[in-house]
Specification:
The chain folds into four domains: about 30-115, Phosphorylase Kinase, domain 1 (2-Layer Sandwich), CATH 3.30.200.20; about 120-305, Transferase(Phosphotransferase) domain 1 (Transferase(Phosphotransferase), domain 1), CATH 1.10.510.10; about 325-375 and about 390-395, no CATH class; about 410-490, Serine Threonine Protein Phosphatase 5, Tetratricopeptide repeat (Alpha Horseshoe), CATH 1.25.40.10. About 50% of the residues lie in helices and about 10% in strands. The protein has helices at about 5-10, 75-85, 120-130, 135-150, 210-215, 220-235, 245-255, 260-265, 270-280, 295-315, 320-340, 345-380, 395, 410-425, 430-445, 450-460, 465-475, 480-490; strands at about 30, 35-40, 45-55, 60-65, 95-100, 110-115, 120, 155, 165-170, 175-180, 185.
Amino acid sequence: MPSARDPALSNLGFGVAPRPARDALIGQLVAGRFKVEELIGQGGMGKVYRARHLALDRLVCLKMLRPALLEDPTLVGRFEREAKAASRLNHPNGIQVLDFGRNDVDGSLYIAMELVQGKDLRIVLRDEWPLPEERLCNIMAQALAALGEAHAHNVIHRDLKPENIMVEQRRGQPDFVKVLDFGIAKILDSDLPGLTRADVVCGTPQYMAPEQATGTQLDVRCDLYAVGVILYQMATGHLPFDGQNSMEVLTKHVNEPPIPPRQRQPDAPISEAMESLILRALEKDPALRPQTAEAFRQLILELPKRRATAELIQATPAAVTPADSLSSATAVHEGRRAFGAGSAREAPARRKRALALVAGSGALLLLLAGGKMWRGREEPSAPPVAVPPMSVTVSTLAGAPSTPPARQPRDPEKAKELVQRASELQAASDTGTARDLLLQAIDLDPDNAEAHYRLGGLFLNSQPERARTEYEAAKRLNAPKYADVVDTILKGL
């Protein structure tokens, strides 16, 4: 009886296609030490195999460039770039390159890398979305750790996307991450030729930073923008910008603000702190994003703690009268704002101050109410005591005097110093203190255009109208420097 794979069955109309031809490289040796076992993927540049390193008896991933492409210097350069970039990295969350060279048989180029058993993040999102915020933070904190290692060795990935983030389930280490594919990485101190004649627009349009889309000078912050895009996609299930073609997508990256994640996907479990961090990472101006991968990673790791603190504050009972509930709610709300805007190391102290103020106000109200009840027993005819409503300002929660300071005399030089310090704090991700310094700078010198511009960036996502006012002031005070960029930003407001 003929088998199900008998070619005769196809000829008889059974619709069973013959088995595909076996790949010619399977079973062969590459460079005399890698025995090819299985084809696991292929693309325009070449094929990817599972192979065994005979000397080490270890499974590896073997990338082979198609022999027909050896005459193309751009593709050969890209292949060499991936090998050189990845070989610089020595981090648990980065792919490890084991070997690179030419096959003895046909001269084709190969890269031998560690074999990662897992699913790429695109598949994880497709099959398991929505992800709990704690899991999302764990995955992207590891990706940022790998990027930090790359950036420390002068390597910019330039093509970070879910397909290049592998998620592996290890014993005792769920969601262990590996960052892959440095094929179009920019190596800042390399003598390798550019990928294109101008070495400019490279990457996947949906994940490209505005400066990448416009072909301007790049630094590590373009990778951090891509992390922001991935976070947006993980949180909402959507890309922040998409379109019918690459040019439409790139134009949106450059000109349009993203729809806030909780507005884009109201039913998704997205905290306010997560939304704020995502929007900050997606700032058009690189100076307003987290400035390093490590700083971004620390902000990511703080998010679950902030969410737990916010839930604790919400669950705290308030023993206050209805007339004073608004004041206490204001204190809690402003405490959250102060906590969210400050640096990670200031957060516990701010939280304690916020809770202490709420508890203190509640205790004071109870004492006053108790006194009123006692007087009511001894002096029935006495009129009730009116308790003035309490209010707590942001400056009080931040440790500053409760009464606003008197306006200081103009001091442009001091204002410049404050703007410089604010810039350094922004780079260190302490946006709350940076905002306070910029407000002081404007108080000292209302004509400081840079202070208005930076303050506009800090208000862009939370208070768009205030941001517009600050941006327009910067444009008015220094049109040659700020007019074009402000016009671009305001188109999206």
